[in-house]
Specification:
- This protein has about 375 residues and is an alpha/beta fold.
- The chain starts with a helix and ends in a 12-residue tail after the last strand.
- The protein is about 45% helix and about 15% strand.
- Strand 6, helix 11 and strand 7 (about 245-255) form a beta-alpha-beta unit.
- It has 2 domains: about 5-80, no CATH class; about 95-355, 3-Layer(aba) Sandwich (Rossmann fold).
Length: about 375
């Protein structure tokens, strides 16, 4: 069976027609597309899209159909051996390696993120329970975090992975908190200091392993995906050592339905080097005898809406920044945002907010939704 025939039959099995007329149907632009995909796996699929070898009008629906299918399993296996072996042999998220994702992802241009993320500059999942817009969803998420940790005026909070200072600004303005936000991105820190100027906020370029002081509460919103399974236990013990006895730690992270040791090759190469998604069992093992789990909240489908909003902002405003990037970058970023949205829509990956305490909240923790 030829690669074209094999690929065509696999796609037809999930309702995708090669060169068909539906928005989720793949349009082949290069006759060697299937050959390249079958020899290179998910890395080749992404790179061939970046190179314009194939296209789909509705890319998120295309990927939604592929999730939970035999196609995903076939391509996931190709080229994964070295990535898994590397993750097993080395600590890919060591202090020395930790800055790589900052340099290659978060430092690619604040103008891009300003246009994509909106006024709050929050690069994590919004909370859409009562929201109609991205800005409303992000404010609702920030307020949800503050409520869950019981934030009050004068509290000193550590934000691990503070980004551009979105949470720090909100917590300082709305709740009167004092916030230390740490990031491994120089560009994030530079803009974050501008955004939080005049507020009781300190933004540092610092690894979480180098912090050594006490805080009333700690949050980590969208950073745990960069910690790595070899460091989960170290991370939790470090957070515990920084948290006051009566304090609360809120972990906001994307999570996977199964335990893995690395991410897919395309995401590792082009988007989040050395990243990986934790599973419930991996997180559970990391907090055992360290924290009491008070609350576990899953609102992963809200990330689909968030990513689609980011893509809309990115696409509509591309003309303002396209001189700073290439067409190949545009296709790469589109592939990243829309394939990620599809993964959440298919419930392949989740978004968790986990509330942890050191000794258990006296009288019991009251869950907030």
């Amino acid at each position: 069976m030829s690669d074209v025939q094999r690929g065509t039959e696999l796609l037809e099995s999930v309702g995708i027609t090669v060169n068909g007329g539906d928005p989720w149907d793949i349009q082949i632009k290069n006759k060697n597309t299937f050959k390249r995909a079958f020899s290179g796996g998910s890395l080749a699929v992404g790179e061939s899209y970046m190179d314009g070898w194939w296209d789909v009008e509705d890319l998120s629906s295309f990927f939604k159909k592929l999730h939970h299918s035999q196609i995903r399993l076939e391509f996931r296996k190709i080229g994964m051996l070295w990535h898994v072996l590397k993750a097993r042999l080395f600590n890919l998220q060591s202090i020395r390696r930790a800055t790589q994702v900052g340099e290659e992802h978060y430092d690619i241009g604040n103008d891009l993120y300003k246009l994509m993320l909106g006024p709050r500059m929050v690069y994590t999942c919004g909370y859409w329970k009562n929201a109609q817009t991205l800005e409303q969803a992000q404010e609702a998420k920030l307020d949800l975090v503050c409520q869950k940790i019981g934030l009050k005026k004068g509290d000193r909070v550590l934000d691990i992975g503070g980004g551009w200072g979105g949470f720090a600004k909100f917590a300082a303005e709305k709740y009167g908190a004092e916030v230390v936000a740490i990031t491994i991105s120089e560009e994030q820190a530079r803009l974050g200091r501008e955004i939080t100027k005049g507020l009781p906020v300190e933004i540092r370029v610092q690894d979480y392993r180098d912090v050594d002081e006490k805080f009333d509460h700690i949050v980590s919103i969208g950073m745990f995906e960069h910690v790595g399974y070899k460091n989960y236990r170290t991370f939790m013990k470090k957070v515990c050592s920084l948290l006051k006895d009566e304090g609360v730690f809120l972990l906001h992270t994307i999570g996977g339905n199964r335990s893995v040791f690395t991410t897919e090759p395309w995401l590792d190469k082009y988007i989040f080097p050395n990243g990986m998604l934790p599973s419930i069992s991996q997180i559970g093992k990391s907090i055992e005898k360290v924290f009491v789990m008070e609350d576990w909240h899953n609102f992963g489908t809200d990330y689909d809406k968030t990513l689609m909003s980011w893509y809309q902002n990115f696409d509509e405003n591309w003309g303002e920044i396209q001189d700073n990037y290439s067409e190949r970058f545009y296709r790469m970023w589109k592939f990243y945002l829309l394939s990620s949205a599809a993964a959440f829509r298919a419930r392949e990956i989740q978004l968790w907010q986990i509330v942890l305490s050191k000794k258990g909240v006296e009288g019991g923790y009251k869950s907030i939704r």
